[in-house]
Design brief:
2 copies of one chain form a homodimer.
Chain A lengths: L2 E2 L1 E4 L1 H10 L12 H6 L4 E5 L1 H9 L5 H11 L5 E5 L12 H13 L4 E4 L7 H13 L2 E7 L8 H13 L4 E6 L6 H15 L3 E6 L6 H10 L4 E4 L13 H7 L5 E2 L4 H14 L15 H5 L3 H13 L6 H14 L9 H15 L7 H7 L12 H11 L16 H9 L8 H9 L1 H10 L11 H17 L4 E7 L2 E7 L3
Parallel strand pairs in A: 1-10, 2-3, 2-9, 3-4, 4-5, 5-6, 6-7, 7-8, 8-9
Antiparallel strand pairs in A: 11-12
């Protein structure tokens, strides 16, 4: 009578990406892996663009080695990654052989489930990556990025799911990166996909920023969702995700169950409860924020625009920029606002306010208008396309953007070969291909081994003591004995 | 087609009670009152036992004056309070005239809605308070304290609702003080009450500690709940409550709506976002905790028992005590674990572990076993009743506990008259009656005016700077030039 709901645990990837700027070191994860492996998750998300980037940029850690370690420590689990379609883990389109090579190597190093998405929801940008995954025999998951606009309807999302299934998706992910998915649309979309395409597996991914999405997961489950994404409670909430244990308890007494092992969950929780404070300096103070429902602007995008304005001495014009964003978004055909479209639209809105609407276009925005990122759900404004043509001196395209790229694997190998520390593997070539500016430095310093940017328990203790001390110090006069050159002076200190 | 869901805003009472030990000063609330008054809440909870206690114990603030100020600042709102039935705001039963006097004075000073509860769910302990409320023409709300035990069933709660309605309750509150109410029982209980008694108003109060209760509110609404309790987002979550704005957004697209004014909510939110950090030292680190589902022990009760054990040098025996709690709870007839039953059961469990089961009973536990707190849902263990009789040298009672009390108003007036600072009002008599140990000191110092125990923005800034400084200081040697009596010395400081 009860239906089993699968759970994807996010603590090893999206949870620390969302809560602590992806800074968690591998050494702070290894001790939890045995419990994660045995808890009964449908999959364990543990790899993606930001974790890969952070490994080589901040942690001097080889991301491929991290993947192999996960594979070794969690032999019974499906390891899952987030893949930016034709962008792989980087910020540009890669030529198809690179896509194939990357997927092949990821599978070989231990990846099982590839959640393939595209910021614009353009199926053509996901197709090759999905084919590559299927060629390795691994699980190809097609993704719908959820957003709100006058053009984004339940019917549209259901149609997109059909396109992904036609491309061979083994399951469909409904990805709500901005915590915009309210209970009713969650229900409607999942129900729509199930009603239209039969019993296709649906995974639902929500952030918790707006505080409503555990209810959305409940409604999605009621509509037939098969797997939902959560993070262990000690690494949950705020800009992160709903707590895994709360999901388990929420379903008690209903016709659904996760089948997760609560004893294991509590061990995982306790482990990360000790880890989280080490990275407190990377955390934002946001506990819950429903502003995005009215502004339609994700928090990260807003703070980006604010710092761009400040850098131009125009910090007081954020309201104007916030009103410009919907205009730019509409002109661009209503792209979902995720990396990289959120940055592209946001920066153009700032330019429009500071210099006049479309007087100066960024190269990226011109590319977006001219089709070089792919197609959105809406039509792009023809007048703005004309301006883009003029400024960028490029013609608009209608074909799949990656079709314009020449084979580049040999060139990428050549580039890698020039780097100090290159070990001759395809993995190193791919690392450099993903983050060309950063990889060289990493490969050169790789031998020094990983570094942990979290604080030690001792440092936390000292800072706490200092803060406590200061709070006492400011309240009244304190006397110190200061000894110098054998003579002791009594010094009184008080707030000036 | 849409049904309007009322909202009780908790920020002025339970939110700061749960998040910051009830320490918020009136001056940190007044500036938000105009927006709260205009936002469209069903009621504004703003008074109760702990806020009253905290006013006179920590804030040197007259709680009656606080109530009058709320009345003045929120002329369009229903003000709501939490009343411990025959215990009023104190920790013992009061004789009926005192109950009447207290309710009369509360109404006179501005209270509109009285949520009347009893820790044991004994209707006889709520009856007089409810009658007194009705005599003033105000709203009497009967309360079900929600707990989980082998005896607590949906049917039992529905029956209790009927008893409260028979006593004249204008509405029923389902009060989930430990965040134990899961979605399915929330639905079942609300549905059961509506199905049995027709369209009686049901208010649902949940804490957010376990992370599941926004879903429970959703299900309660689907089952017909009329009003739900939430707290503005900047004063929400953790041991507190679900965020008001999230509730509003959650219902969009459904057949329910709160009708709240979001612009007002955002102003209220922004106000308390600046207030909350001032009281950070009173906050617990708990973000979400589902332990209570397995332990059945509320967090506050657990920490109480831990400190009792530590004081006896037996801090390592907490596991034994946690296993003893269910035994004691069963022997006592399965009381819900809220103040004061949680302390009474917890302390006895500690005594049992340290000195042998029921070798030594606390006076309170003996009273509980002998019926002096009223009746629970379960039968009490006859063997343990016998032990209680012997140790307390008292007989068990079956009548309403307050029936044993002699008239006490005149005596209370006499007691108050002896106090320095007593202003001759019934309100002062009642203040002293509620908290006799604390009121005397408060009345004597009342003229000095309220004090704010929160930190100033300046203090917070200084502490932050100190903490930042320390984190830099400990990482390497720092040189200072120290000038004394005209001579400059170079001093090097580094971690020892």
């Amino acid at each position: 009578m009860t239906r089993k709901i699968g759970v994807t645990e996010l603590v090893l990837r999206d949870a620390h990406q969302s809560l602590m700027a992806t800074r968690m070191a591998m050494e702070d994860m290894v001790d939890a892996c045995a419990d994660i492996d045995a808890a009964g998750f449908w999959s364990v998300e543990c790899w993606g663009g930001a974790t890969f980037d952070s490994c080589i940029r901040f942690l001097n850690e080889d991301p491929w080695e991290r993947l192999r370690t996960f594979r070794e420590l969690m032999p019974n689990s499906r390891l899952q990654m987030l893949l930016r379609g034709q962008n792989l883990l980087g910020y540009r389109h890669y030529e198809d052989t690179v896509v194939e090579k990357f997927v092949e190597k990821s599978a070989e190093n231990g990846m099982d489930v590839f959640r393939v998405f595209d910021a614009l929801n353009d199926p053509r940008n996901m197709e090759r990556a999905m084919q590559a995954v299927k060629a390795t025999g691994k699980h190809a998951q097609g993704t719908i990025c959820y957003t709100i606009s006058p053009l984004h309807t339940t019917e549209g999302y259901v149609k997109l799911a059909g396109q992904l299934l036609d491309m061979g998706a083994e399951s469909i992910a409904l990805k709500d990166m901005a915590a915009l998915l309210k209970p009713q649309p969650a229900y409607d979309i999942v129900k729509g996909i199930k009603d239209t395409y039969g019993d296709v597996q649906i995974n639902v991914h929500c952030h918790s920023t707006t505080g409503v999405t555990l209810v959305s997961l409940m409604r999605a489950i009621e509509a037939g969702a098969d797997v939902v994404d959560t993070a262990i409670s000690s690494m949950s909430l705020g800009p992160g995700h709903n707590p895994t244990e709360s999901l388990v308890e929420m379903l008690e007494g209903t016709e659904y169950t996760t089948g997760l092992d609560m004893d294991r969950l509590l061990k995982i929780r306790d482990h990360f409860a000790t880890v989280r404070p080490k990275y407190a300096e990377f955390e934002s103070a946001t506990l819950v924020d429903t502003d995005i429902f009215s502004s339609q602007i994700p928090g990260g995008m807003l703070s980006n625009m604010e710092s761009q304005l400040k850098a131009q001495g125009a910090g007081d014009r954020i309201r104007e920029v916030m009103e410009e964003v919907p205009v730019v978004k509409k002109d661009a055909g209503y792209p979902p606002l995720v990396t990289p479209s959120s940055q592209i639209v946001g920066t153009q809105a700032v330019f429009n306010v500071l210099m006049g609407r479309y007087k100066v276009m960024t190269g990226e925005f011109a590319d977006l208008m001219l089709g070089y990122y792919g197609e959105c759900m809406g039509e792009r404004n023809p007048e703005v396309i004309e301006i883009a043509k003029g400024q960028a001196k490029k013609d608009p395209i209608t074909e799949r953007p990656a079709d314009l790229l020449a084979p580049e694997w040999d060139h990428l190998v050549e580039e890698a070969t020039k780097l100090a520390g290159y070990n001759g593997t395809d993995e190193d070539v791919l690392t450099n291909a993903m983050f060309p500016g950063v990889a060289g430095k990493f490969l050169a310093s790789r031998a020094e081994g990983p570094k942990n940017v979290g604080k030690t328990a001792e440092q936390i203790e000292k800072e706490k003591a200092a803060a406590d001390g200061s709070s006492k110090a400011v309240r009244g006069p304190i006397k110190y004995n200061v000894t110098m050159a054998g003579r002791t002076h009594t010094v009184q200190v008080e707030p000036a």
